[in-house]
Amino acid sequence: MKQLFHFFAPCPRGLEGVLAQELAELKADGIKATDGGVGFSGSMQTMMRVNLHSRIASRVLWKLVEKPYRCEDDLYRLARDLEWPDLFALENTIKVGVTAVRAPIKSPEFVALRIKDGLCDRFRLKTGSRPSVDTQEPDMRIQLYLTDRMASIYLDTSGEALFKRGYRREAGDAPLRENLAAGVLALTGWQPGQAFYDPMCGSGTFLIEAAQKARNIAPGMRRSFAFQQFKMFDAAGWDKLRIEAKARENSDAFALFGSDVSSTALAHAQANLEAAGVADT
After folding, report:
1. What global pTM score does this model have?
2. In DSSP terms, which residues pair with 151 in a beta bridge?
3. What are the beta bridge partners of residue 146?
4. What is the pLDDT of residue 172?
C-alpha cells in the first residue's frame, strides 16, 4: 500500500465547497473542508496531481507534525525533532511563517525565529552546517499554525502560490487572482459548451480560466513547484503526470467573449490570452 500523507489546501474564503469537489475529482482521500481551505490525505503522487491540476487551491501544504504545546520552547523542540535533512538539501534556502488563532504567544516573529532555530539545529546536528534564510524567494517555505493548544508544522509543496499560473504578461490596476476567478466560475456551474461573456474582462483572467477549463489545460503546466526540490521527489512519476495531462488537452474552438471600456485593458487581455496559449479559443 502507498503511504498516506496529510495535506491542507488553503483557498479564498467562500470557495471551500468547490475546492472540496475538485479534490474529490483529483482522487484525494479524507477530504474535510474548513474555514479558509480543505484538508485531505493521499500519496506524494496525489500531492503532485493536486498541484498540477487544481484551479482553486492557493497552495498545497504538507503537514509534518501536529502536537500540543504550552510555550515557545515546546515549539522549538517540535521543529528540532523533525528530520529536516531527509526532506530537503542544506543548499535550499528557507523561510518560516506563523499563523496564530487565539494562541498564548506574545510575538509571532519570535516564534518564527524559534522554529527556524530548531530547524537549523537539526541540520547542524546531521550535517555540521545550516541552511540560509531568504525572506523574498525561498526554496522552502515552512508554515507554523497555532491554536490555543495545538501546533502544526507544514512544508509548502507549491513554492510560488498556485494562482501564479505563469501566463500573465500584463495586468491592470487591480488584477483578479486566477484561482479566485476559477472558483467563481465553479460556483456559477458554468461548463464548456455553454455561453460565456465577460462584459468587464479587464486583463482577461475569467476568459483565460474558462478557456483553459474548456481546453482541459492543467493550470500548473507552465510552472515549477517546490516539491521538485524535495529529496524524495519522484521525477519519473512527475513526468508521467505531465504527459498524461498533456494528452488530455484538446484544441476545440469554444465561443467565449469578453469586452471592456478600456482599450489598454483589451490589449492586456490579448497579450495574456496569447501567453496562455488560448488566443484562438
Report:
1. 0.94
2. 67, 146
3. 100, 151
4. 63
